[in-house]
Structures are given as C-alpha cells and as structure tokens.
Amino acid sequence: MSRSAHPAGPRHADVLPEGHWTAPPADLNALDPKVWSRTVERAAEGAVSVGGIEVARLAEEFGTPAYFLDEDDFRARCRAWRDAFGTEADVFYAGKAFLSRAIVRWLQEEGLNLDVCSAGELTTALAAGMPAERIAYHGNNKSPEEIERAVEAGVGRIVLDSFQEIVRVAHTAERLGKRQRVQIRVTVGVEAHTHEFIATAHEDQKFGIALAGGQAAEAVRRALKLDGLELTGIHSHIGSQIFDMAGFEVSARRVVQLLAEVRDEHGVELPEIDLGGGLGIAYTSDDDPREPHEIAKALSEIVTRECESAGLATPRISVEPGRAIVGPTAFTLYRVGTVKPLEGLRTYVSVDGGMSDNIRTALYDAEYTVALVSRRSDAEPILVRVVGKHCESGDIVVKDAFLPADLAPGDLIAVPATGAYCRSMASNYNHALRPPVVAVRDGEARVIVRRETEEDLLRLDVG
Ligand code: LLP
C-alpha cells in the first residue's frame, strides 16, 4: 500500500496518519518561535506582525497569497552558519531552496558562498554580482551549454556527477584554455531519513558516483589524468530534512576512507570535502532541529577524528544548507475564502492559494501548521484542513491543524516555515499567478520577487 493510500471502507477523513496528534494545542493564539521567524509577534490586541508591520497592512499593500520573508532572520541565520563554521570551512547556501537577486546580495554581505544547479540559478547569481569563484555548480545532467557557461564564468567549483561529465568538463575547460576546479560527487550508501538513517548496500538513485564497487575511485583516477581538471575534493549529499547526525557521520567516514585510498594510490591528498546540505528545520512544534554551531562541531569532530586515524591532514570542509537558512524565515499569508464544516469529520478552510504556492504537502506529505493572524480569538479549537482553490482534491496546504471555531471568510491565516522550496517550486497550475516574495525589515516591506500578472501568462502564450 502506498503511504498515501487508505483502506477501503472508512471515509478519507476518518483516517488520520498513524501516531498523528489529534489534540488541539493549549493556546491557539500562541506562536511557537521554533516555527515562526524571529521578528514575528502577536500584539496584546491580537494582530500578528513581522518586522514591525502588521499582517493586515501587508495584505492590503501586497495582496494575498504572498510570502513574507523576515530579512533580519535570514541574515541572522547566514551569520550563525558562517560563525559556526569559522574561517576553517565554507558555507554554500543552496540556491534551489529559494533564490533571487536580493538573496544573492544578502549572502555576499553576510559572507556566504552559493550553490547553484542550473543555468537560470547561475544567471541570477552573476546578475546580482556574486563573484564566480564563490559559486559551486551542481546537477546530474548539466548540458554542454551549461558547462561552457560555468567554466567561462570561472565558477569556483563544478561538482562532477558522472563519468561522462568528467570528460565533458575537462574537454570544455581545455578548449577554453582553462583548468577547472572540480569535486566528484560520490554516493556513500547512506539513505537519510528525517529521524534515522539506514546504511544501504547499494544506491538506487540518480545522483553521484557510487563508492561501492570502486566506481568513485575509478572516477578519481580518470579526473586526475585530465589536464582540464583540478580535482580538489570529494562531495557527498545524503538527503534532506535530516535531524540525526549519524548519517553525516557514516558519510564523512566513507569520504575520508576514499581520500586515504586516493593518497595511497596516487600520492595526492585532496584538500577539500563537502558534506552537502539537508539539515532539518521545524515545520511543526514536534520537530527539534539542531543549531548550526552544534552541527559544525559534530561535523568537524567527525572529519578530524577520521582523518587522524587515516593519517591525513584535515581537509577544508564545506556544507550546503538551503532549507536550514531560508526555510524558517518566511510564512505564506492567505485570505480565507470559504469555511465548510463537514459534520463529524473536519472543517475545510479554503484559501486564495494552494498547491501552486506550496506543492510540498501534496508531493511529500509534508506537515505544516497554521494560525489565525489578523486577530486573536478565544473561540474553541476546531480540526481543520487548509485547502487551496485548485481543481484537485489533493490541493491541500495543511492536512491537519486546529483553528478557532469562529474563523470566517475574510480572516487572514498564515502558514509558517514556507521559505524553502515553496516559491522555488511554485507553478502556474490552473493559470494561477505565482505570489510575490516580500522582504520585511525594521518597519519596511519591499517586494523582492513580484507577483505574476495575467500579462506574464499571455506573454509566454504566443498564440
Ligand atoms: N546540496 C545538494 C547537492 C543538494 O542536492 C541539496 C538539495 C542541497 C545541498 C540543499 O538541501 P537542503 O539543505 O535545502 O535540504 N524539494 C525538496 C528538497 C529537495 C532538495 C534537493 N537537494 C523539499 O521541498 O523538501
């Protein structure tokens, strides 16, 4: 049975996920700082604000649905990651989580580097003035044009993902009279899940080159022979929304083993290892993410220990957090359109967005919380499902949550922790207009990605 299937017989709504909480929170007006960005607060009279601006004012000025990004929080998280890793390691923000020119400028100001995985992301990074040497270029199937642009731009590293790509990048660099710094992405045989990890004997997914069967060692052998490449290190990314450091421990150990094998075979000590991203955030109060300084300490201890026992100098470490930086910094603001109580089941609350601005619930069974933010309410909690306005019953934003029973059309509700992989995976399904991203800071709000318009839709539709 698939994880989203339900047994025949009971109605869908009778089947809550196993172990799911069904009790309402003690105080529906409380905003858990774990899931809301730093400057979000509820005033005594009940309205919620971010960066000193009340949500009702934001809704009036920018419309709904819209993502509101807490710039102070974003910058503070960048600094926390940078300071945690210090000068001995590099932090590359994973642009796929959310990228815009303002974000790129903030990253530069806060001393972070950037990981891109497409020509579009590279263009955005360069357009905002990110120095090419601070960019890492990823992807399992970079086109010849993408490789050429990355090499020509002089990106700091290209992460090689296949045997074909080793040759393609080497030839492109040679043709352009360059020597490209590269890392090889390896598959370490660790399958990371949210609260656990399972070491697998073989890796059944599309990324990287397997350590198993000597594949990665062969990739190193080939890369070292090619004049167009300067192989600087090994890269590993084990998954996403991970809380348990054990998966990183296994990954680091296996990468260091490969470095030792490379030294033994070629007499070369590769100077870098990249342990990827994937650090989890709190989507609900049940999640307990680690702080950057704990993560940095754990990773550097693991790598140092493993290198000492292999007799290697400790390589320069890099990491690529995306979600852990931008995820908690934004919420999506929606206006309630309809409230439909289904007797004995739950209440469906329809908002003016949906799966076009947050596909994660439909795609990954992701869990979110929601709060009434335009006012305070002391009405009793009711079990709700927040749904969008798309023509699809899977158009769910928040599967199970509690809102006050007096919730009414026109109320503003907000879903926190939508900074990562919501706007970046937004779609035009049903010709929805993708919402704006508005940065809020110190009483000022400014659009950093504007709302799409119907003209935008028609511009692409050439008739
Ligand atoms: N580095 C590499 C090589 C990656 O592939 C990724 C994510 C990251 C870093 C950043 O991972 P993060 O720290 O953001 O978890 N759309 C999915 C997530 C896909 C992640 C893909 N790669 C989601 O919404 O959960």
How would you briefly describe this protein structure?
With 463 residues, the protein is of the alpha/beta class. It contains 12 helices and 23 strands.
Q: How does the SSE layout of this entry go?
A:
Blueprint: E1 41-42, E2 48-50, E3 53-54, H1 55-62, E4 66-70, H2 71-85, E5 89-94, H3 101-109, E6 113-116, H4 119-127, E7 135-137, H5 144-153, E8 157-160, H6 163-175, E9 180-187, E10 190-192, E11 197-199, E12 209-210, H7 215-225, E13 229-235, H8 246-266, E14 272-274, H9 292-310, E15 316-319, H10 323-326, E16 330-342, E17 346-351, H11 360-364, E18 371-372, E19 381-387, E20 396-404, E21 412-416, E22 437-441, E23 444-449, H12 454-460
Parallel strand pairs: 4-22, 5-6, 5-15, 6-7, 7-8, 8-9, 9-12, 9-13, 13-14, 14-15, 17-19
Antiparallel strand pairs: 1-2, 2-3, 4-16, 10-11, 16-17, 16-21, 18-21, 19-20, 22-23
Helix pairs in contact: 2-9, 5-6, 7-8, 8-9
The structure holds ligand LLP.
Pfam families: Orn_Arg_deC_N (PF02784), Orn_DAP_Arg_deC (PF00278)
Subunit structure: Homodimer.
Enzyme class: lyase
Main sheet properties: 9 strands, mixed
What is the top-level CATH class of the largest domain? Alpha Beta
What is the subunit arrangement here? single chain
- Report Rg: 24 Å
Shape: elongated
Number of helices: 12
Overall pLDDT metric: 93
Q: Which class of secondary structure composition applies to the elements?
A: alpha/beta
Task: Give the CATH superfamily of the largest domain.
Answer: Alanine racemase
Number of strands: 23
Summed up, the domain count is: 2
Ions, cofactors and other bound molecules: ligand LLP
Percent of residues in helices comes to 25-40%
Low-pLDDT runs of 5+ residues are: 1-7, 9-13
If you consult CATH, what is the topology of the largest domain? TIM Barrel
Taking the alpha carbons of the first and last residues, their distance comes to 44 Å
